Structure formats: structure tokens, C-alpha cells
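If your schedule permits, I should be very grateful for your opinion on a structural question. Please examine both parts with care and let me know of anything in them that strikes you as inconsistent. The record follows directly beneath this note:
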Amino acid sequence: MARTKRETYYEILGVSRDSSRETIEEVFLKEIQFFRLLETSGSLEAQEKILELTKAYLTLSDPQKRKKYDGELDFEFVLLDGKAKDPEIEEAYDAYRLGHKKSYQEILKEFTKFREEMGETLWVLKKTTIYLVGNLLVYSGLVLYRSITSHTNPMEAKEDSSQFDTLSLFFLGFSFLGYLFFRFTYLPKQLEKRRNQKPN
């Protein structure tokens, strides 16, 4: 059965992720005071809220625990690109993490590397497609030009056909050599430049 989306400790306390320890403590004490007043009236919801607030505060007020917790939140954010978390996907994350005996930080690192590699692959594919389509358009233009300027005289038409075949072979050979240069010299340099421009 799918679980409902869990609130983060920041949401439970009503603070932002960049809040200082002092701010978190101040909000916690204020919230606790309010719900303890409700607890005295026998409110079960107030008791549950106090437990949630206390658990959130104990985690976020400890620098080491907060750092680890933030890493878990970052993992969830990156995988879903900041979108709302699906409870079923959440269960899959937990199953993967436990099955591979890895921390959220380790999985985050692996996924970030995978996403960067996929991004580079798609970038190379995009540039290669543009190059090939460009060559195809040029060749199509040559074919169209030949069809427009072709002669009706059989002898002249045969001579034109021979010249076009030679031109086609030259163009295809030039395109192939151009592709080798483009794919194995130009693109690697551009890819390296692209990596260097990324923020560390």
C-alpha cells in the first residue's frame, strides 16, 4: 500500500532550509509551548505534534544529523527534479538503498554522475544529428539543382549524369572525412570546454 507523502522536518517546524540553529530553536520553543497548552486539554493530536516537533528539532539542531538529513533531501530533489514525491517511488528508493546497502549520499553521487553522462551523450547526439542533417540538405540541394538543369538531349544528359556521379562521390567522401574530424576532433574539444564551464 502506498504511503502518503511525508513532511520534511523543515515543513514540520515551519522554517526554511537556510534557517540558522537559533531560528530553529526559537520556532521550536514557540510551537512546543502552544501545543503543550493543547495537550493539557487532552488533545491526542497535540501529543503527536509534540513528538513530530521534537524529532524534527533534535535532527535539525545537531549539525551532523542535519547535514546527513539535508543529503537525503537533496537526493530526493535531484531524482525528481524538485517535483512532488510519489509515495510509490519513495518506496522504490528505500528498497534500492537497503538492497544495495548504500547511503542516500552515495546513491545521489551515482545518479548525478549518470545524469551528467546522459546529458553529454544527448548533447553529442544533438550536434551529430545537426551535422548529418546539414549534409543531407546540401546533397538534396545538389540533386534538386541537377533535376532543374538537366538536359533533354541523350548525349548531354549522359554527360551530366557522369559529372553528377563524380560530384556525388566527391561530396560523400568529403562528408565522411568531415564527419570523422567533427566527431573525433571537434566534438571532444567542445565537450571538454562544456565541462570546464560547469560550476564546481
Notes: The radius of gyration is 32 Å. The chain has a mean pLDDT of 79.
